[in-house]
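Known limitations

Files may contain more than one protein. Parsers should not assume a single record per file. Below, a two-record file is shown to illustrate correct handling: read the sequence, read the token line, then continue until end of file.
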Amino acid sequence: MIRPTRRTATDADFARRRLAQLAVLGLAAGAAPAALPGSASAATPSSANAPSTARASVKAPSAARAHYDRARRLAADDPVLRALVTALTPGSGPPPLPAPEPVKLFDNLVLLSAGWVSAMAVLTDDGIVLIDSLTSPADAEGVIIPGLRAVGADPAAIRHVVVTHGHADHFGGAQTLADRYGARVHMSPADWDLLTRTRPADAPVRDLDIADGAQLTLGGTTIELHHTPGHTPGTVSPVIPVRAGRRHHSAMLWGGLNPPSTVAELRTYLASVHSFRAVMRRANVEVELSSHPNDHGLERAGQLRHQPPGAANPFLLGGPRTQRYMAVMDAMLRGRIADAEAAAAGAAGTGAGARGAHTVAASHACC
């Protein structure tokens, strides 16, 4: 059962207003370690895997540098928050990570991963809600289906596939699961429209629209779905109830991390950070999740797989720490905005800014 808390017509109006702004840079790239502009000390060892341009000596404008420095101070020595700082650093590239075995992060939540991108399966009494579907039909057949069986779940119980945004690494297996098991596929209206325009391979047939604030209920479990545009015009971020024994917690999954490049789109992204942070506060979110390894997530999954019974769950950050996660994101976005404003000012009157933006958009298609 889907219960929208706002009218779908409002979301359609929002999408139409945003599409003109966001279409050019609706596709954005992955995130991984690299040095912060103007700070050689910010790099992690894995930044050696990033493109050489990410390791070049680039001095950030002082306004941007102040925001990046604040993000580093907020992150301190927290590995989850440090990974987020690195992931949002301009010029970063995706880390080469092997695909882990499927693992239950909580009693009712399974991580199904291809390495650089993951899906989450929410197990309920009446079936499974899958959050994202990896990159392709082959991933559906080779990762999702056997992964669910490996943890004792029946893939035939998949009732819904919620696609957080319209990039192939998130919708690639959706149609295969819909065809095989009759699963319903959900996406925001703006990103269904994005697929209509771009016509990518393996795109699912348009099915159900996600209204902003919609509630998807299955087997007594209600997942909230919130529009957080910025990464794409219609990115959706879920709030998911999870449980560990008798303890119940609220988890968030930020729908698409890597930001666009123009000032207007970055400000839209920042507004989404603010609105979703308020949602998290209201829902008492204590758990942070990600579809990409930009939050120390695969390392935490490995820790969880091998730790003794009764040890603290590494995904249970607590309310203050998840709020600090969003504060770090806020500071990094403000730095990106300052960088974009400086670049736009430098390109004024030359036309270079518009040409550069087009080039960036053409190369960004994931994460």
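...continuing to the second record:
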Amino acid sequence: MSQRVRGVIAREKGKPVEVATIVVPDPGPGEAVVKVQACGVCHTDLHYREGGINDDFPFLLGHEAAGVVEAVGDGVTDVAPGDFVVLNWRAVCGNCRACNRGKPWYCFATHNAARKMTLEDGTELSPALGVGAFVEKTLVHAGQCTKVDPSARAAAVGLLGCGVMAGIGAAINTGGVTRGDSVAVIGCGGVGDGAVAGAALAGATTIIAVDTDERKLEWARGFGATHTINAREADVIEAVRELTGGNGADVVIEAVGRPETYRQAFYARDLAGTVVLVGVPTPEMTIELPLLDVFGRGGALKSSWYGDCLPSRDFPLLTELYKQGRLDLDAFVTEEIALDEVEQAFAKMHTGDVLRSVVIF
């Protein structure tokens, strides 16, 4: 039988979010109902509210979450009721051309639940990134559930569901950062600091954090940045080169998603270095670069989708590193809030006061 629970929806473009009663159906084949314990407030949720993703209102917001599986549908074998899981929004299909090439992190046919959660009047909801986790219980595809150590703090490991994983993966999976590398990270919010932490885990010896906010730069130092650059006070390209023997960084990770910062990343890398774009641009943004510079500087220009992660591989590993004290996921959690405080959390994003606000159920 369906259940009625409380959740946060965006009913109209640009309007404040609201707490509403959500009808969660029983899981169908391949699906699971998860009792959410914690869900981070991510910029992507704000993009949904502002109509920056699509116009399929109303949205059930939230996607960066951890919780306990309550029920599963027919054919589900990988998770069972009682399992502690981190939710993900790229549940691989195993059959598309990317999966068949042995690169499932690029899966082109990721799974979502087929059944729909609704409002009490029957209005179908669009779950953010196919998850919809600002809600006491959510319906997802079972492949969106990854089992991790149940002793881990839900508020911390739930952040692997999006922003922190995107940053760590941008460094390790997409950028291929390895021991002895020099790395520059432009933009030190949750994703950027995840990239700093990932670079530190991978053994980079020079990790340069770039931002315009001294508070964020201080946070980046805590995650492993060896040097910081305030972009309001210094020429970023020249400053990165100065810190890398005049050469530029081996890997530059752009975690802002703007043409001007991408251009900085392009010219702040060493010859044959790598640029990784993990910041999400808006549809109207364009960039112009001299084609001769693209050719002459060599290397690689990459985009990172969700940190090119494979949840079944990466979530348990990173949770174990967290449990060992080698990855400080707790430091990403600035505050724990109630379900009805999501709108205030969005406001705090604009002022730069938080890395992550996390809704606790």
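Parsers that stop after the first record will miss the second one. For reference, the second record is described as follows. The longest strand covers residues 31-40.
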